[in-house]
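seq as requested:
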Amino acid sequence: MIFKDKTILVTGGTGSMGRTLIRRIFSGEQGTPRKVIVLSRDEAKQHDMRMSYLHKLVATDEVIYRNFMNVLEFRIGDVRSYSDVSTAVKNVDIVVNAAALKQVPTCEYFPEQAIMTNCEGAVNLVRAIAENGYQVETAVAVSTDKACKPVNVMGMTKAIQERIFISANVMSTNTRFVAVRYGNVLASRGSVIPLFHDQIRNNGPVTVTVPEMTRFLISLDQAVDTVFAAIKEARKGETYVPNAPSATVENIAKALIGDRKIDIEVTGIRPGEKMHEIMISDEEANQCDERGTYYAIRPMLPELDGFDEKERGALEKEFSSADRILSLEDTQRLLQEHHLLIEDVEQTDGHELLR
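struct tokens:
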């Protein structure tokens, strides 16, 4: 019961992953928390999220603030601001840093903005905990497969975020800093599947960058499961990685199109994109061991590397999205399993996916 009587801070808590994480926390499956604090800078998304929890119970926003702030607290603030972070993390037991600039092309055109959110935001969290002596038990950095052997700004800044959290364990002995790293989240905001859904609704064409391009696929709930697993089991400085399947973008498009007479248009690779993503590099393969359905990557810093040699080497080579590619049939089965075929989405009007 990792959340029993705990206060949890979720930065970027109004995003797709943050909303699913908070819904799962409040389900009580890992114990009933004392409080969850959402820190984000978008007041409209906070309002929508607040109302999604409470509109059936109360009549006005004023009542929402008065009666529900004791268990779900919304704070307007920015991880780029040390004072905002320092105030939010006070008296918190667990931190999940889900705040990010994650659109690859956006980060390519505005790299300084990605640095401020993805890197300086992580620094502010580490500083706030260390300099104020806050008794935070665990802090989790939410990362991405693009942080492994990065070729784009988003991946580079996420790789640095991982290192910021891992190195924090050397100086902050009271807090366990860990990371999670996973691939494309099915149906998350800005991902390819909602784009394909919109294109199919408008009778196409469905735009594919490169048909042979592969991507790891993971659902929002599986992303949350990875965070839960890291909070439960990860040792200081470890990065948790799910053993996830992958598919070509062409098969994802074909699975969603189904029998419809809709064309696929190839547009070419976008700035900063890889043909195949890597979840664990060759260098990290020797530093990881298997934990059920996850891999745990050991920290490279010698001060944190006090583990048994026999636990190492769960992989003989890098873990690439090109290794185990799902067939078209298996891709369709995976999307159907997560209710992501367009007919399933139409039945829920798309809202259920983010609740």
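Residues 56-60, 63-67, 349-355 have pLDDT under 50 and may be disordered.
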